[in-house]
Design a protein that fits this description.
homopentamer; 100 residues; mainly beta; OB fold (Dihydrolipoamide Acetyltransferase, E2P); two-stranded antiparallel sheet; 1 helix; 4% helix
Chain lengths: 100, 100, 100, 100, 100
Amino acid sequence: MRLAKIRGTVVSTCKEPSLQGVKFLLVQFLSESGEPLPDYEVAADVVGAGTGEWVLISRGSGARQHDGYQSRPVDATVVAIVDTVSADTGLRYSKKDDFH
Amino acid sequence: MRLAKIRGTVVSTCKEPSLQGVKFLLVQFLSESGEPLPDYEVAADVVGAGTGEWVLISRGSGARQHDGYQSRPVDATVVAIVDTVSADTGLRYSKKDDFH
Amino acid sequence: MRLAKIRGTVVSTCKEPSLQGVKFLLVQFLSESGEPLPDYEVAADVVGAGTGEWVLISRGSGARQHDGYQSRPVDATVVAIVDTVSADTGLRYSKKDDFH
Amino acid sequence: MRLAKIRGTVVSTCKEPSLQGVKFLLVQFLSESGEPLPDYEVAADVVGAGTGEWVLISRGSGARQHDGYQSRPVDATVVAIVDTVSADTGLRYSKKDDFH
Amino acid sequence: MRLAKIRGTVVSTCKEPSLQGVKFLLVQFLSESGEPLPDYEVAADVVGAGTGEWVLISRGSGARQHDGYQSRPVDATVVAIVDTVSADTGLRYSKKDDFH
């Protein structure tokens, strides 16, 4: 999975029928240390993530391992909202500090 | 999924038999802010997208999650026509404004 | 799918048993405008493509969506020979012109 | 698989339900000669790897080939702890020497 | 598939149980013309390849299309030992010449 930050939303009326009801979020990938990277993804949201939150993105067939998503044409999904990222050099990110 | 813009079409007479009837579109990937990227893809179209429209491309096995596509050798499909892209900094793209 | 040009062949005697009878082509990826890219692939051929022809390459599990290929360890296949590539700026490639 | 080094952990309370009980490790990819690369991954751990250890990361659907992981939305998993890496030029890495 | 050269071996005692008995080879990817690339992979071996040999690497789910490998967490496998690579410009590689 990759670390990313929720940046916005993508809206589509005309889409593959099974995508009805799927929420599309614009997410920007983050480096290991939290710097925004040029890469982004439009990901389905199954955890109710909000703008600015750090999340984990699962891609490929992993993005469809969720009830009701097995046959939807998605290749990226927000699967977790990150609380903390800790490394050998100490705490790198804490949602509590970021959103206080 | 990735944001892309429809640039053209690819025609093939001699192809894997199950690809009969599949429309191939030439799509150019866009950066998060809408700039054209050097990367492109030839994608199957299941939503009837037209030249210049912004779309979402699903790749890998996700590209085959559509009625009748499960056993076709495609690895990229246009799965949605984008209406709007909104970010924390405001509206980034609106089809209505782009095509008025 | 990606645009590529047939450059040559790869021959192997000692291989995974199910690869017997699979023809391996050396293909060079092309940019959207037809320039050769540094990336290449060794792809199985299911359409009888010849040297110099422009083709479409399907990668990943898409490369095995062909009768008798479902259980073969291939991750790239030539799935179509390209007749024309047309973009908003006009005809970019025509097999007829290329091979006359 | 790719060589990587365990750098830390990622904690998430709000996540896709089937991810309960999955341990997320922050892993940094290594070059063939053991230099840290800028790329990282957040990987599920099924072997009990510890900080600083060299491991093998399997990505894509390969990351879910483990009892109970088939339907979890993970796309990267720590599948082995590396003892030694040997090349034609000699021993490149030995866990015993690294952790003595 | 990609061209690669066998460079060495990776040994692991503590690993996902189904990986018992799998031989891990360190392989270095080659450019189309045979130059070593910075990218490498640790690949399972199902053909008995030896150091210095040119091989074909299949990645993703293609790497598990071999008897007994369907449920093993591998994402790269050596599936063929290359005899020759021929291009429109002539013979690029011949195992016979390389190992005489």
